């Protein structure tokens, strides 16, 4: 029986999950692949801490070089994260003819083109199912069973930290800072949560989704990213009153040869399936010309779910290697020479409905001035809500608009924010309510 030996880079939470799965389901993997998959070596700076998994018979080392160049090892699993040394290690493994499985969305979003080219030159594969959606098999579906479709949209709730925070704010009425602290205590948020709450992690994942759905190279800096730090419990409550929930949404749309690529808090109707994705769960919704809308839902992070996706890629490689097949599918699902560079639509040209909240002095004529400024920019009001007077004489005014161009909206709000009756900067949230 053919044996496939693996080298694992990174023995953190996910790495421990991979060790656990390979040991627990070893016989099952052999039954499904016809090969014996064995973990030969693990590389980590800390090889003494007990991870709660059995490492008997596995070589533990702090030296990556000896694993990356080991001729017996044919697959490298990279779970270090970040850009370096992950990039250098992956390229080294590829140069020595080793296939690579990674969960590193940041690495691929920034250095993917270089890594894919190196893999092609060396006749090996790079698989990364775990990089988006944890254990949700969305990337393999895009490259596999759904490959016959032209995709028009991809929408995703792909950051569990943000979704947990917004879920708690929605269900418990808690403030952002309070829920963030709780998320950190529970291990759902990092000590420095910037990448999560500012939308950077979501943008990394959207970069990969766009490349696979639309067959294009994407420069991460071209993806508009906005986090959830400005969302208040007041906005969450107003969203409910209008029949919406707020989610941090990754949005990709094909629009007349251009791609909309944006990450930001978004109001979606409360009766839409995406609005019902709670806690640390993720969901990705695709629309294809033949399949129509389809949604993938599941655990977007965590030891077991992510390990499942990593080992799934190893199984895929094992089947190909067992059959003597190399590079059965290009990394992005398109022939390398057919990957294009589509134009990203400027954010100012995006057309959307909007929720706007002003903090205004309760004075005669305020609503008329606001409506006049919006109208002068071609923005039509769909509905309006003004709270009762308060002791401070400052009240929230909430407006829901019809579809408007982003640049027009920003110009109107910049003017309104200068009015002496407006206190603080206005808040606006985009609305997605036409998902069919």
UniProtKB/TrEMBL annotation:
Domain ACT: 355-430
Entry GO MF terms: homoserine dehydrogenase activity; NADP binding
The protein's Enzyme Commission number: 1.1.1.3
Reaction catalysed by this enzyme: L-homoserine + NADP(+) = L-aspartate 4-semialdehyde + NADPH + H(+)
Active site: 205 (proton donor)
Broad enzyme group: oxidoreductase
Iron-sulfur among keywords: no
UniProt cross-references to InterPro entries, sorted A to Z: ACT-like_dom_sf, ACT_dom, Asp/hSer_DH_NAD-bd, HDH, HDH_cat, HDH_CS, NAD(P)-bd_dom_sf
Chain sites annotated for binding NADP(+): 9-16
Pathway note: Amino-acid biosynthesis; L-methionine biosynthesis via de novo pathway; L-homoserine from L-aspartate: step 3/3; Amino-acid biosynthesis; L-threonine biosynthesis; L-threonine from L-aspartate: step 3/5
GO BP term (any one): methionine biosynthetic process
UniProt record similarity statement: Belongs to the homoserine dehydrogenase family.
NCBIfam families: PRK06349.1 (NF004976)
Protein name from the UniProt record: Homoserine dehydrogenase
Organism: Citrifermentans bemidjiense (strain ATCC BAA-1014 / DSM 16622 / JCM 12645 / Bem) (Geobacter bemidjiensis)
């Amino acid at each position: 029986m053919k044996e496939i030996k693996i080298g694992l880079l990174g023995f953190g939470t996910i790495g421990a999950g991979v060790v656990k799965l390979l040991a627990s389901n070893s016989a099952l993997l052999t039954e499904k692949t016809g090969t014996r998959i064995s973990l030969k070596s693990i590389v980590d700076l800390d090889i003494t801490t007990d991870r709660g998994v059995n490492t008997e018979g596995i070589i533990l080392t702090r030296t990556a070089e000896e694993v990356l160049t080991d001729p017996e090892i044919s697959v490298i699993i990279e779970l270090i994260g970040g850009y370096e040394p992950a990039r250098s290690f992956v390229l080294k493994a590829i140069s020595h003819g080793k296939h690579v499985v990674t969960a590193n969305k940041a690495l691929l979003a920034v250095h993917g083109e270089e890594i894919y080219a190196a893999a092609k030159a060396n006749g090996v594969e790079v698989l990364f199912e775990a990089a988006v959606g944890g254990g949700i098999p969305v990337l393999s579906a895009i490259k596999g069973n759904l490959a016959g479709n032209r995709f028009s949209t991809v929408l995703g709730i792909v950051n569990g930290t943000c979704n947990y925070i917004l879920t708690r704010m929605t269900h418990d009425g808690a403030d952002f800072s309070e829920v963030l602290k709780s998320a950190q205590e529970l291990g759902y948020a990092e000590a420095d949560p910037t990448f999560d709450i500012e939308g950077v992690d979501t943008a990394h994942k959207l970069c990969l989704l766009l490349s696979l759905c639309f067959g294009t190279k994407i420069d991460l800096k071209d993806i508009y990213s906005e986090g959830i730090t400005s969302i208040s419990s007041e906005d969450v409550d107003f969203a409910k009153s209008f029949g919406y929930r707020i989610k941090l949404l990754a949005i990709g749309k094909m629009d007349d040869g251009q791609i909309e690529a944006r990450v930001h808090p978004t109001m979606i109707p409360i009766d839409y399936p995406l609005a019902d994705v709670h806690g640390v769960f993720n969901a990705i919704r695709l629309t294809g010309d033949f399949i129509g809308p389809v949604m993938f839902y599941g655990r977007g992070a965590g030891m077991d779910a992510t390990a499942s996706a990593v080992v799934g890629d190893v199984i895929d490689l094992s089947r190909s290697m067992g059959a003597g097949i190399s590079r059965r599918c290009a990394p992005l699902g398109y022939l390398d020479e057919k990957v294009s560079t589509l134009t990203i639509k400027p954010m100012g040209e995006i057309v959307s409905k909007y929720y706007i909240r002003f903090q205004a002095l309760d004075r005669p004529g305020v609503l008329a001035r606001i409506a006049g400024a919006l109208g002068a920019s071609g923005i039509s009001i769909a509905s309006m809500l003004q709270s009762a007077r308060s002791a401070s004489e400052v009240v929230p005014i909430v407006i829901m608009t019809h579809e408007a161009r982003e640049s027009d909206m920003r110009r109107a709000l910049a003017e309104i924010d200068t009015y002496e009756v407006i206190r603080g900067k206005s808040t606006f949230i985009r609305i997605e309510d036409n998902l069919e």
